[in-house]
Amino acid sequence: MTGRQIMTADEIRRATIRISHEIVEKQAGTARLALVGIQRRGVPLAHRIAAAIAEHEGVIVPVGALDITFYRDDLSLVAQQPVVKGTDLPFDLNGSTVVLVDDVLYTGRTIRAAMDALVDFGRPQAIRLAVLVDRGHRELPIRADHVGKNVPTSREEVVKVQLAEIDGDDGVNIERAVAAVPAAPVG
Fold first, then answer.
1. Rounded to whole angstroms, how far apart are CA atoms 82 and 58?
2. Which residues contact 144 (CB under 8 A, 6 or more apart)?
3. Would the pLDDT of 22 be above 80?
4. Measured in whole angstroms, how far is the alpha carbon of residue 34 from the centre of its chain?
5. Are 12 and 133 in contact (CB under 8 A)?
6. How does pLDDT run across 141-177, given as a tens digit for each residue?
7. What DSSP element (H or E) covers 162?
8. Alpha carbons 182 and 162: distance in angstroms, whole number
9. Nearest Cα to 131, choosing from 157, 165, 102, 89?
10. What local confidence, expressed as pLDDT, does residue 179 receive?
11. Among 44, 24, 11, which residue's Cα sits nearest to residue 145?
């Protein structure tokens, strides 16, 4: 794989703060607002957004974690023994505005699975979506309400988000998958 950086740690920080302001503005405050990060990198992003809201609004917004493993429509293609990361929703979803948080929006299938999983736990008044990177190529009619950065990509590219809480460092890279070179015939 070869790649290039499209977001630095500072750009991620600024995008997170901007998204936190947009969420509060769209909600007209913080009443009945909750953030739910999609496992894995959506969870630390949700906590970062909540921390930014706490800093500029003085309100602690509840944060949960959602594991969508068993809601995926491609589960049989992903792994024989999927790794379950756990769901933790320490608040009542009913009547709340829930902002799903994820690192990359691509086909929309992860978000569809997340909405299916979320409604198994309650009936939010509204579900919104915040993502760090929107790379396009939607297969379902899903769009983000809050986007850190829109990045046009090809299907051969991979967007890799690194967060200090998981990877030890912050950054977003686009990598192009290098096609394997066929081996020379023997004989």
1. 39
2. 105, 129, 130, 131, 134
3. yes
4. 15
5. no
6. 999 999 999 999 999 999 999 999 999 999 999 998 7
7. strand 157-162
8. 32
9. 102
10. 61
11. 24
Strands 2-7 and 33-38: unpaired
**Contact between 173 and 11 (Cβ < 8 Å):** no
> 131, 96, 93, 126: which is closest to 110 by C-alpha?
131
Structure tokens at 129: 């979506």
Q: Which residues of 62-93 are buried (b: 16+ CB within 10 A; e: fewer)?
A: bbbbbbbbebbeeeeeeeeeeeeeebebeeeb
Query: Tokens for 3?
Result: 């790649």
Global confidence as pTM? 0.90
What's the pLDDT tens digit per position in 86-142?
899 999 999 999 999 999 999 999 999 999 999 999 999 999 999 999 999 999 999
CA distance 54 to 60: 5
Structure tokens that stand for 90 in this block? 């320490």
Measured between alpha carbons, how far is 38 from 89 in angstroms, rounded to an integer? 11
Residue 184 has pLDDT above 90, yes or no: no
Strand order in the sheet with 97-105: 63-66, 33-38, 97-105, 126-134, 146-150
Strand partners, 36: 64, 100
Q: What is the DSSP letter of 130?
A: E
Q: Which domains does the chain carry?
A: 12-77+86-153 (3.40.50.2020)
Task: Give me 48's structure tokens.
Answer: 């970062």
Under 8 Å between Cβ of 136 and 127? no
